[in-house]
Amino acid sequence: MQKQITEEQKQMARFAKAMGHPVRIYIIELLAKQACCYSGDLSEILPIAKSTLSQHLKELKEAGLIQGTIERPKIKYCLNQENWKKVQTLYKRFLDL
Question: Which domain holds residue 75?
Answer without folding.
Answer: 7-95
